[in-house]
Each structure stands twice: as structure tokens, then as C-alpha cells.
């Protein structure tokens, strides 16, 4: 075991703080989030540092930071709040947060149900079938999962990606108008 004293760990933090921060910033592209993830990295490292040999501290800290960032980016909150394309679609006044991010409602109100149906039906697989069941046949995620023989979590992921693709198509159509 390679147990460190608090002073030794503090020295390690000072030595590698900029490196860990840079790694985090490369993943998340936000200075505040990178600072939080840097702190999370060192908190996690403190409790497990005795499992790492001293000559590997630098590489190990970089790996811990990368894993913290990946976990952060995979979190449901980040995927929903920081989804690409959300900034291109303004929310209507008086709408509860999140409603405007639904591409089905936006396109239906803007271009009509026929255009929505065409876009949904033209989505590539595996998103097309679940999107048809969700947007056009108004089925719940659990029901879709049973119909297509996939786990509900997979269906949720595929619906999220289908919404992302629809958002991108809507955004492209707006640019052409």
C-alpha cells in the first residue's frame, strides 16, 4: 500500500491540478463545470490513492478525471439540459420548460401534421419505428418496448436520439425558409 499523508496529497493536488482541470475542460467545454469535475476527481482520488503506485499517479489522475467527465456527460440531467440544438429552438411564452424541446409539438404547430408524419416516417432505423409508435400512435415507452422487443431504457435512448434528429431537421428547414 502507498498511503499518503494529507500534506503529500495536497502537494499531489497542487502538482496536477492544472492538468486535471485541462482534461476536464476538454471534455465539458465549460470552465465552471470543469472546476467542479476537477474537485470531484481529487475527492475520488483521495479515497483510492493507496491503490495506485506513485510512478502512475499522473496517468491515474488523468484517467479518474476522464471517467468523472464521461459519467457527467452521460448523466440524464446533462443529456436533457445540454442537448445539442436546444438553443436553436426558442421556448414559446407561457410554456412550461421542456415543452418547446419536443420537436413533434413544434413542427406540428409550425408546418402541420403531414410534414411531421413525413419526417418521423423517414427517420432511419432503429429510431424510425419507435418514433412512429411514440409520435404518431401515441404509445408509452413501456408499451413500445414490449412491441419492439427491446428494453425500456433502449427505447428511451432511441426516442431521445430520434428527437435530436428531428430537432436537427427542423433547424435545417428553418434555415432554408
Write a brief caption for the model.
By secondary structure, this protein is mainly alpha-helical.
What is the string of SSEs from the N terminus onward? Answer: HHHHHHHHH
Topology-level CATH name of the largest domain: Arc Repressor Mutant, subunit A
- Tell me the fraction of residues in β-strands, as a range: under 5%
- Residue-averaged pLDDT: 77
CATH architecture classification of the largest domain = Orthogonal Bundle
Total number of strands: 0
- The radius of gyration over CA amounts to 22 Å
- The stretches of 5 or more residues where confidence is low (pLDDT under 50) are 82-101, 106-111
Termini Cα gap = 65 Å
- CATH homology superfamily of the largest domain: Winged helix-like DNA-binding domain superfamily/Winged helix DNA-binding domain
Query: Total number of helical segments?
Result: 9
The secondary structure category is: mainly alpha
CATH class of the largest domain: Mainly Alpha
Shape: elongated
Task: Tally the structural domains.
Answer: 2
Topology:
Elements: H1 6-28, H2 31-48, H3 57-74, H4 76-81, H5 103-111, H6 113-121, H7 127-136, H8 141-148, H9 152-176
Characterise the protein shown here.
This protein has helices spanning 6-28, 31-48, 57-74, 76-81, 103-111, 113-121, 127-136, 141-148, 152-176. By secondary structure, it is mainly α. The protein folds into two domains: 6-79, Rna Polymerase Sigma Factor, Chain: A (Orthogonal Bundle); 93-176, Orthogonal Bundle (Arc Repressor Mutant, subunit A), CATH 1.10.10.10. Helix 2 crosses helix 3. The model is unreliable at 82-101 and 106-111 (pLDDT under 50).
Amino acid at each position: 500500500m502507498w498511503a499518503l499523508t494529507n500534506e503529500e496529497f495536497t502537494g499531489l493536488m497542487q502538482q496536477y491540478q492544472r492538468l486535471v482541470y485541462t482534461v476536464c475542460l476538454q471534455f465539458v467545454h465549460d470552465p465552471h463545470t470543469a472546476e467542479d469535475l476537477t474537485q470531484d476527481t481529487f475527492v475520488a482520488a483521495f479515497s483510492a490513492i493507496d491503490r495506485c503506485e506513485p510512478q502512475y499517479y499522473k496517468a491515474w489522475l488523468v484517467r479518474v478525471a476522464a471517467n468523472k467527465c464521461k459519467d457527467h456527460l452521460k448523466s440524464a440531467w446533462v443529456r436533457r439540459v445540454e442537448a445539442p440544438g436546444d438553443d436553436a429552438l426558442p421556448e414559446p411564452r407561457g410554456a412550461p420548460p421542456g415543452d418547446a424541446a419536443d420537436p413533434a409539438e413544434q413542427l406540428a404547430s409550425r408546418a402541420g401534421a403531414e410534414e411531421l408524419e413525413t419526417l418521423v416516417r423517414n427517420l432511419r432505423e432503429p429510431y424510425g419505428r419507435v418514433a412512429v409508435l411514440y409520435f404518431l400512435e401515441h404509445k408509452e415507452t413501456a408499451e413500445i418496448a414490449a412491441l419492439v422487443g427491446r428494453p425500456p431504457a433502449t427505447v428511451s435512448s432511441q426516442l431521445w436520439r430520434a428527437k435530436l434528429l428531428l430537432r436537427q431537421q427542423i433547424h435545417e428547414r428553418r434555415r432554408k425558409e
